[in-house]
Amino acid sequence: MENLENIQLNVPLLRRKVSNLTAAARSVGLRPATVSNLCTGKIPIGRAEVKTLVALATLAECSLDDLIIRGEKMEMIETGIKTLDAFAPLTKGGTIGLVARFGMGQLVVLAEMFHRLKKRGFTTVLLVPSGENPEINDITVEVDVQVHSVDEAYEKLVALGKEKDIAFAADRSNVISGDIHQLQERLSNVGVTITTFLIDIKGEAVDEDLPFGPLETLWQFDADLAARRKYPAVNPIYSTSSILEGGYLEQNHLVVQQRAQKLLRRYRELRSLVSVSGIEKLPASEVDTYHRGERLEAYLTQPFYVAEEFTGKKGETVHLRETLDDIRKILDGEKDSISVENLTFIGKI
């Protein structure tokens, strides 16, 4: 029997073959959320219903053998950003969707990603959305090349792709128009691989099941975290990556990630109770859970290099092994003596 841990959905093929996956999925009786979870790996392929895979293969006009990739390794790019590396790793050559409403900090996260990737030798390219979008000015300092059309993007990316790793960003308006679908298909035909970031300047993606089509990585921003200024406001429970499935990461990473998500889910439930009745109403058995959830949430905040002049805090990079070790210590109660304040906006403990 084939090892189900070594198979994955062929997301690039789906992206090329099905331009509007949300509508297409509904048309054959599939829930868009289920398709999204299969694309990002939140639902492993080994647990997918056969009829779902058959329907996807039909939409893509391909065989099941083409739809399912066996044994290919994905490469994780370690960003040094605690929340992203631990809960929704960046996949090199993949497509990453940032889902956020206005004011949640998605452009700051993109600018920080470009800043960090440039240090690793990447060339950063932005497809400038049409119309007046002054907020884009916040990230242009980290952009090496600005392009204004799909044809111009294609020419630049092909020329650069032969020499360098590329981080490319575009707005959801370019996805809706079909421009990104067309661009990715053309690049695939000439063998150019880029790491693509899709943002949503208008903040409408939050209301869609598949706002960008198939993704390797989804960074879901959280209104509650943003309101309480817990930045980056990327939700560690609902953000995900296909690299988490299929045996691509060390077992320790998966164990820590799953334990941390379990704690954070319960902590969010307890926060609701505490906000209504006060912490004194919590059962004694839940008090430690609540406080450890507080500490973990605080620890996952992080100073960014691109925000230093606004925050007055020096940017921090934390290696994945350090992040996982710190999270484990918080989960195990080894850091119960440290206050929430002393864990907020730091690097490693």
What's the CATH architecture of the largest domain? 3-Layer(aba) Sandwich
Number of domains: 3
**Proportion of residues in β-strands:** 5-15%
End-to-end Cα distance: 44 Å
The CATH topology of the largest domain: Rossmann fold
Class based on secondary structure composition and strand pairing: alpha/beta
- List the uncertain runs: none
Please give the radius of gyration in angstroms: 20 Å
Q: How many runs of DSSP E, i.e. beta strands? A: 11
Which CATH class of the largest domain is shown? Alpha Beta
Sheet with the most strands? 7 strands, mixed
Q: Could you give the order of the helices and strands?
A: EHHHHHEEHEEHEEHEHHEEHEHHHH
Spatial ordering of strands, largest sheet: 7-6-8-9-5-10-11
In round numbers, the mean pLDDT is 90
Q: Any idea what the shape is?
A: globular
User: How many helical stretches?
Assistant: 15
Subcellular location: Membrane
Domain ATP synthase A/B type C-terminal: 248-326
GO molecular function, one term: ATP binding
Organism: Evansella cellulosilytica (strain ATCC 21833 / DSM 2522 / FERM P-1141 / JCM 9156 / N-4) (Bacillus cellulosilyticus)
